[in-house]
Amino acid sequence: METSKQPGPEEPDKTTSNKSHASISADEARAALQQADAEEHATLNRPMPGWYLAALAIILFAIFALNAIDGATAWMRVVQVVALILLAVAIGALVGAVSFTHPGYRNVHIKWLPAVLWGVVAAAFPVCAMILAPLIGSWIWLLNGALLALLIVVVGTVYRRRFSHGKR
Amino acid sequence: MASADQAAEARFDPLIHAPHRLRICAMLSQADGIEFAEIAERTELSKSALSKHLSQLADAGYIAEETFVRAKRSRLMISLTPTGREAYAGHRQALAQIIAEAGA
Question: Taking CB atoms and an 8 Å limit, are B31 and A43 in contact across chains?
Fold first, then answer.
């Protein structure tokens, strides 16, 4: 089996430039594929700043908490609705600015299926609250908001540890 | 990623197989373009070393380079050409084939 020293960062890849299909072992092929997979994942899953998770969780909890307010007067209702709209816009702007904008990258080929599935999971929290609140009380909004915020922090922390790429 | 591999004809490419160039092609395959500085940071290559690798890929017609301005600075965007994408996908398929043949 051919053995070759892995070229350092500055060295041109002379040792492997004349390799052919016939001289590549299965182990080498496997290592190469794993490395390629890792780089592809690193492009698809960009690092995100730590404050982003906290901001998302807080804004979402605030949205849920506003929906938990019961017995509001007419003017309080107006304030409530305006606040909900502003927070929803803030969430959209935040997600658009961080999750879908990657300086240094042009049109990352986002895998939409996982994104949609996670969206469905997140949507389940307000839908459940809307269904259950008339039956068991508006406190379910607070509970679901807390659970969703916790899910975001936990999943986001796992994501950050896996895809920090040595940054932040 | 796996579905794109399956569509490509397996073709081992010594030019792409070199470790740094494989990483560069892999990262480029999942975006329409990545800036030179970002590639240099991810590969931890110096600018001159990265330029050499990119020159080899460009000479083979695998990448395209585009200069643009962002945040008032001139930057270089690197992207895989259709030929480069096909070559990379074919190389991945060839690697998968080697692994499959060893397991058979």
Answer: yes
